[in-house]
Recover the amino acids of this structure.
């Protein structure tokens, strides 16, 4: 192998496990992949399993971005949960949303409120299609009003992340913005593609890749609650020989700082 890079919220943990040569934050990785494929892009929407983000590009350079790592509403995990609760597969979710004839208004600002509202709408007799269609509309408005607040959303716009597979969310975005979105062929892997491109650019070097098997070193974890702000994050640290090599769970990423060799 020529080289290995990691990205994403668990990039430092993954870097240790596989022996990565490069660790890059998600904003950089996603941007590099998009700029390479669609050089004229001005806006990137990325909605994944756990968080969502928007990246503003001008002339192939990142000039602004925003991330939502606190609220899960609209992310892949939330959509999976709601699909299961409605007794449908996530693959059916988007198709059913497109069949909505009279989408109902669903609270989309909070996962708890959204789920409660959906249950209420079901109880009073609204169809599953109309509930899902309304949920997609509400989640898109929430994303645009919160994550994208104050951003100049110019076309061309690329929509990526696992949620880009959801036709209901895609249609709701296009309807709200009154423009077509570009969906990359590998929309769920754009971060990985960007990280790989960056790893290739930084060559030559001797790769640290440990192979496809996980590290056989003895590892342990420990957790604690950070009380330095109102978030009170439950932080988990990965230790090897009593040395902290990775950390996650801290919303502000204060404890996620790593040795110089793993800085992303």
């Amino acid at each position: 192998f020529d080289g290995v890079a990691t990205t994403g919220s668990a990039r430092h943990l993954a870097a240790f496990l596989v022996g990565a040569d490069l660790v890059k934050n998600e904003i950089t990785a996603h941007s590099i992949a998009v700029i390479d494929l669609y050089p004229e892009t001005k806006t990137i929407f990325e909605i994944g399993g756990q968080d969502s983000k928007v990246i503003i590009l001008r002339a192939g350079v990142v000039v602004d971005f925003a991330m939502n790592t606190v609220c899960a509403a609209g992310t892949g995990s939330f959509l999976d949960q709601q699909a299961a609760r409605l007794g449908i597969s996530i693959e059916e979710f988007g198709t059913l949303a497109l069949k909505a004839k009279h989408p109902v208004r669903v609270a989309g600002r909070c996962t708890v409120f959204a789920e409660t509202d959906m249950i209420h709408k079901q109880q009073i007799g609204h169809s599953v299609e109309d509930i899902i269609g309304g949920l997609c509309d509400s989640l898109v408005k929430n994303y645009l009003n919160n994550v994208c607040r104050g951003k100049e959303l110019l076309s061309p716009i690329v929509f990526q992340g696992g949620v880009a597979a959801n036709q209901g969310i895609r249609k709701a975005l296009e309807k709200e913005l009154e423009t077509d979105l570009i969906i990359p062929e590998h929309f769920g892997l754009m971060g990985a593609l960007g990280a790989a491109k960056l790893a290739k650019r930084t060559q030559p070097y001797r790769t640290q890749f440990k192979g496809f098997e996980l590290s056989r070193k003895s590892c342990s974890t420990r957790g604690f609650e950070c009380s330095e702000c109102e978030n009170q994050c439950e932080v988990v640290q990965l230790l090897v020989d009593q040395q902290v090599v990775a950390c996650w769970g801290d919303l502000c990423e204060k404890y996620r700082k790593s040795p110089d060799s793993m800085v992303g």
About this structure: The mean pLDDT is 88.
